[in-house]
Amino acid sequence: MPGYKLLLLSFLSYGCFAQPVAEWKEKALYKELLYLNHPFYGSHNPVSISEMPRDIAVFDATYSSALGEYKLIRQGQEERNRTGSISGVRKIGGLSFEGAIEYASLALVDKKWGSHLWVSEDNPFYISDSIPGNSGVETFRLNGGFSYRVSERWRAALRATYLAGTLADQTDPRPLTTGMRFVINPGIDYRLGTSFSVGISGRFGRLGESTEYTVINSIEPNVNTLFLFKGLGSPELKSALGYKRSYEGNEYGGAIQLAWDGTSGVGNFLEASSGRINEYANDGDSGFDYKGGDYQATFYRLSERLSLKTPAYIHSFTADFESRSVDGIWYIQTQSTDADANVVWTVRDRSVSHKQSETLTGFGYQIDRMDGNIPRFTALVSGTYAHSVTHQYPELYRAEYNLITYSGQVSGHLNLWKGMLSLSARFSWATSPLQEIETGGSRLSAAFTEPAFQAVSGSHYACGIDFDYRRPLSLSTYSFLIGLRAGGTSKQYQGQAEIYQNASRQSFSLSLYLTF
Amino acid sequence: MYKSFLLSVSLAIAMAFTACDKKDDPEVAANYDVTISLLAPEDISLADVTDLKIVVVNKTTGVETPASPKGETTSVELPAGEYDFRASGATADFKLNGFANASIYENKSVNIELNIVSGAGLVFKEIYYAGVMSYYWKDGFFELYNNSDEVQYLDGLIVGIVDGGFGAPSPWADEAGKLPSRYPMTNHTIYFPGSGTEYPVPVGTSVVVATVAIDHSRRELTDEDVPSPVNLTNADWNIYIPTQASDIQVDGIPNTLVAYSTWGLDFMPGVNGAALILAKLPDGQTVENFVNDPANFMQTPGSQLWDHLMIPHEYVVDGVDIVYSIEGQQYKRLLPTEDVGMAWVYGDTPGSESSYTGKSLRRKVIAITGEGKAIYKDTNNSSEDFIIGGQIPTPGIHAATPED
Description:
heterodimer, A: mainly beta, Maltoporin, Chain A, 18-stranded antiparallel β-barrel, 3-stranded antiparallel beta sheet, B: mainly beta, 7-stranded mixed beta sheet, 3 helices, 32% strand, globular
């Protein structure tokens, strides 16, 4: 027996996930089928773990890269990401377990601005330098959960996710960031009759992150400066030498779900959720304690999905609404030295310096042409309307935009070479009827604030294709799928900002995976 | 019944999640009205003061807010913060400066007392302290210029570095941030020899005083070394510290003398700068006698590390408050009578560090006389008088055209 077969058999004898070969098509499209057949799938409530109809395990190795000028301000000019993951679901009687472990190594070329890792993207208080350099990000994600069918009517579930990572820049000034985010997500649901169920779920999280800057043997004097951002501009400047920042944060939220999964082919899922995130930045160590700003975000979401099933088609209508508001609280502090010559910062004023509100409204329609239980062709059209207003006080800096995005996607699943080939084509066009920014010529207006604003609010289009081929293989009494997935996307800026004229970004990914 | 119970509980929990923590939310940051009143020295009327300017500087962000005085008062709108209020003007006979610092967290009135500024003709024309990579600072120099219309003399003049570190408030300031009336000297305090008229500086001329009077531009370079921009072989004076074995004397160039030392391999304001003063003792007082008087020494408040030579501010002929280039960490070391402003060198971009940039701080030329002599700007406000950010050093060279 060849060595690789022996190795594989050894693994298979260890696992219990192998399934009869006849069901491989459903296994190949398990994510699509979960979406189409189970209203709780993808919801806030972890009872959705029970929705998986069978045991499954997926081993995935992915390489992806992105290159181009049209990027979010803190992304690298070029990015190369390698990810390896194992995920699966195991059902034992009324208990369903899920688990996932993922390691990712991301190389960012010519990255600058923003040295944070897990801090919320809309937190205005982050530490940053302006020197491009090559950075490395390593992340580790561990996810585990279970859902237990307590009775015919009750299910209870708990999911926990742990994220850890590091960010390191090898160009002076060199931030070294380490961070973790831990979230637990309990939930229950109750079935009323045969079709209607109601659920409630919660989410509680903790954040811990720290960044320390060092400068090593640099010949460039500019590298010794870093910025403490606080919104749309006017960051405070500090010496990078040995500067330290840490974040502590918590989040909590909840959601309710109403689901109708009727025998007549009509299904409906409604979820309302809200939550709050707090993150507190503190600078220094035993030497000094400087408050870097408090972030508070509050959000409300409403998601609705209506599905209509016929033997040949499934129609899915979706509507989503989200409102998010952010307050950034800034401290004015004065420096002095105590009797032991330690630097002491005294808070003299505490006020809201940053306010941001965002609303997002989206509608979608998806049609799936079914071949028995298997979707053969899928078409999706959607539209979203985003509105964002940001203020910085007391400077009265302001940024506001509307962004309307139209998207479409078609996918087909074909039998090919004893396997299944899925082909998808995607297109989106975003237009910005309103884009206004006023930062009064603040220090970093041209270098940071306006490019950052354009990157998120500018008109653009994107198109992409994906293919995913998998075929069943048998080894001894075990069967599994081996798959190869590849995709590419091109995104082109269409707005008026000079800095992004003719700017685009291309991304590509390639995955090899095994599904048991 | 189950349904309505669950719905009620769910909604209550969801609302409770987002209602927490609201009670402690602060107000949105606002601007405050600040009324500034100017107080003129006795026997001087504000009506006789011309070119009256007020600049309010946020000490954290460095943002400057100009104010236009109309009579004795004016008003500005300011965000909350810590501010320096700097005023300057002139009468037919005197230059005036005024300074106040204030914490603005409500509507407030601030008084600025104008004082007649010091000055006796010799000024710092240029100071080069930043050095070049890799970590080379011995190419430093300062240049003194006779900006008056009569001959000045170097004899007995003291040049000193004011203690207080950089990037943090001076430990010598009191709780209200007020600096003492005597300046604490640190590093090496040097002076010129002579009995009174041995070392003249004619009108419109200068003397270059070198840390080490050699051609630094030709130093041997290795690895990441950057050539120095200065050749100091034509310097007029060499700073020689006899107690430091690494320091050298240069044939043909006279040495300055050391009045008192705390620490340091050589005369070094530091590559991030420090306040410099040029002082002249009262007639009849010698440097040796001054240094021998224990009453002219103090220790840093809260520290017993050094005894610092203290020079009364009224002895100061000229001073430049050189501060750290990072604006949120700039703290004054000089009183407004000597320098109401601040000056600094930075790298390629404002706010970047001065260290090893190879740039010097130079006073602006405001006029050229009929004889072709430069007249340097001297309002005892280094923020206005010097080219902020720095320039390539020009020892012994004077601009041929006005720059301000």
